Predict the structure of Reverse transcriptase domain-containing protein.
Amino acid sequence: MVTLDTEATNGVDLYSKIYDFNNLFQAYTASKQGKRWKNATARFEINAMAELKKLQRALQNETYKLGPYNVFRIYEPKIRDIKSIQFKHKVVQRSLCNNVLEPVFERSFIFDSYACRKGKGTHAGLDRTSEFFRRHYRKHGLEGWVLKCDIEKYFDSIDHRILKRMIRKHIKDERVLKLLDDIIDSTPGGKGLPLGNQTSQWFSILFLNDFDHFIKERLGVKMYIRYMDDFVLIHPDKAFLQDCKRAIVEYLKGLELELNHKSHIFPLRNGVDFLGFHLYLTDTGKVIKKVRRDSKDRVKRKLKKFQELYEKGERTQEQIEQAYGSWAAHAAHGNCYYLIQNMNVRFERIFEGVGEKNGATIKQPARRGKGKRSRNGI
C-alpha cells in the first residue's frame, strides 16, 4: 500500500495514492461490507479485478468522471433527500478518503470533533460528553450551564467557494484538487453537499475545523464537543456562555451559516439532548443516558412495519435481525435495560406463528443486548 508522507502532502505525488491498486482493492473490500446483497455490488463483484483495473486506468489517465446521482427521500429521523452514487464511485471515494483526506485533514482536527473519524463515532462522543459532565460535577456540582447548538440546514448551506479555499490550505496536489472540485461541484448552485457521499463527511468536519479552534483557543472553552453540526459547550457561568453564543453567531456569518432556533442555553441539572440520548446528572454525580423519546417511537414504528413486510415475505428474518440489532446495540450504550427488554418482546412477536402459517420452521431469534440495568430504563 502507498503510504502518506510529508513530500506527498506538499503536492509531489499525492494523487497516485488514490489509484494505487492495493488501495483501490482495500477500498472495494470495505465498500462491499454489508452491501453484498445489493444488485449493483453483486454486478461489480463478478468482475471485481477487471472493474478495479478500469478505475485505476481512468484515474491514472485523469479521465475519471463522477456519474449521476440516484436521488431518494428518507423520512426518519427527519425528511431529507439523499444522493447516492454508483458502487464504483463509492470505491473511488473510499480510496480518496482513506488515503488522502483522512491522513491529511486529521493533523489539524481538535480531539473533540467527532463523526466519521476512527474511534470518534457516536458512542465515543457520548462517552466524552459524560466525562465532561462528571468533570464539571467534581468542581461545581449541579450548578452550571450548557450551550447546545446546531446549525440550520448545515449540509445544504456549505459554500463551495469557502470549502475549496479551506481544502487548499491542506492539499497542494493539483490533480487531487481537480478531483475534489469535481465532486464538490457535482451539487449545482455553489452550495450544498450530497449526504450520500463519503467525502461529504470529511468536508463537513473540515468546514468547521477553524471554528473548533476558535472555540477552544480564542474563547477558551475547555468542555466543548462537536459532532458534525451539533455541538455543546459546558461552563459554570451563564453570562460567559451568552457571550460565547454571540461570538459564535458572528463567526458563523463569515461561513454563511447560522444557528437554528433550537440553539439555547440550559441549566446543566436539566440535562441535554445529544447524539440520540438525553444525558443528565443525578444528585450524586452519576451520568444517566436515556434514549430519546423520538428514537423509541421510531423503533416501535419500524418493528410494526417489519412485521408487515415479514408476513408478506418482503423481508427475511436475517435482514430484520440486522436492522433491529443496530438499534439495540445503540440503546445498550445507555441506561436502557427495561426499554430494551420491552423492545425485545415486540421484536420476537414479529416471528410468532409465521413459520407455522407458511409451513416453514422459524428459529427463535437470539435475545438482544440487555443494556445497563437501571430502574429509569424506560
In short: Residues 82 and 174 are 29 Å apart (CA to CA).
